[in-house]
Design brief:
This protein is an alpha/beta fold. It is globular and about 65 Å long. It starts with a strand and ends with a strand. About 55% of the residues are buried. The structure holds zinc ion (ZN) (2 copies). One zinc ion binds next to loops.
């Protein structure tokens, strides 16, 4: 079939809307008609070359939801008509890490920057060339073909444009607080960066019963929005937050600091560690350049105060259990998703959407398909 997609031909260029030739699903693959796709910072990391892809061109987008229209002959768990969230990390359920309950580390995740199907070929072709898929999904298109392991079936009464956000931002942020930092009742939590992921880290910390949720972001818009999601205090800089935390906690400092900024740099690790006190946990969710390896931090404080740094991928979630669970929270009104979507765009407005993200005009921008 023919459709359209936002394609990256070279690093540093804008997304280009191209005609896409899409093959039928083979093997364990499904054709999904997408309802919506979120504009996440990770696609921007690919665009600028922070996270180089195995090969270009690549179809962007890894935060979507839609309806299964066709299934390959080896598909067993989903059928035509199912509503699905696309999970940016696949969860095969069978590899060692899935079996041990660490689905965000599914062995199939090795393919997320390769972007091919399970048999090493591509169903997506642009300008006569095979296209790769961001996170093996490529949601910047009204249609995509992905492996069955990349979709999670959801209840049909959940609006798909809201469900899309659980494929990355909601689960990543909420899981950073709940699964990675293991925030518990009465704690003080600092969240560095309150865009799409950070706003959900704030929601997670609130849901866990944190007494104080301190949101840190240079954008006034983001700080204002963070209060809607449960931030009790907001500051423009880490220095301001550190001073305030010293007062608020009588010097004990935060129990956890969550790094959910758009682009992480080495000095931020030390900044986050400076916000937490004894037994403090720092959860690192943000991505930076994959070549940056210079971290500044007080090693003495890590040892003397027994601080921990926790690496966090997809909120350390298990997509097959956490995606339906988060959507249940949403249905019961316990988790805000509608409020995350600041602006919506058509596919051909995608570069405007990313401009708005870079200018901090959105908690989350979202592409809606007809
Ligand atoms: Zn994402
Ligand atoms: Zn697996």
């Amino acid at each position: 079939m023919k459709t359209q997609a936002a394609v990256l031909w070279d690093y540093g260029q804008d997304w280009k809307i191209e005609e896409l030739e899409l093959d039928d699903p083979r093997n364990d693959e499904v054709l999904v008609r997408l309802a919506a796709s979120g504009l996440c910072h990770s696609d921007e990391h690919v665009r600028v070359g922070d996270m180089p892809f195995d090969a270009l061109p690549v179809i962007g987008g890894h935060e979507g939801a839609g309806v299964v229209e066709k299934v390959g002959p080896l598909v067993t768990d989903v059928k035509e008509g199912d509503h699905v969230v696309l999970s940016f990390v696949p969860a095969c359920g069978r590899c060692e890490y899935c079996a041990k309950g660490y689905q965000s580390l599914c062995d199939q995740g090795a393919g997320i920057a390769v972007g091919l199907q399970g048999d090493g070929t591509s169903r997506h072709h642009v300008g006569g060339r095979d296209a790769r898929l961001m996170c093996m999904l490529g949601t910047f298109s009204p249609y995509t073909v992905v492996r069955e392991s990349s979709v999670v079936t959801i209840d049909q009464d959940i609006p798909l444009d809201k469900a899309a956000l659980v494929g990355c931002a909601v689960t990543t942020g909420w899981g950073t607080a709940i699964n990675a930092a293991k925030v518990s009742a009465g704690e003080t939590v600092a969240v560095m960066g309150v865009g799409g992921v950070g706003a959900n880290a704030v929601q997670g910390a609130k849901m866990a019963g944190a007494s104080r949720v301190v949101a840190i972001d240079p954008s006034e818009f983001n700080r204002d929005q963070a209060r809607r999601f449960g931030a009790t205090h907001t500051y423009a800089s880490v220095d301001e937050a550190r001073e305030a935390l010293t007062d608020l906690t009588r010097g004990k400092m935060a129990d956890a600091a969550l790094i959910t900024v758009g682009v992480v740099h080495g000095e931020m690790i030390g900044e986050a560690l400076s916000l937490v006190g004894k037994l403090g946990r720092v959860a690192l969710t943000s991505l930076g350049s994959d070549t940056e390896d210079d971290v500044k931090m007080s090693m003495f404080e890590v040892t003397a105060y027994r601080k921990t740094i926790i690496g966090t991928l997809f909120g350390n979630a298990n997509p097959r259990s956490d995606i339906p669970k988060l959507l249940e929270f949403y249905s019961r009104g316990e988790l805000l998703i509608d409020e995350l979507i600041t602006r919506t765009y058509s596919l051909d407005q995608i570069n405007q959407g990313y401009d708005d993200m870079r200018e901090h005009r959105n908690v989350r921008g979202m592409i809606l398909f007809d």
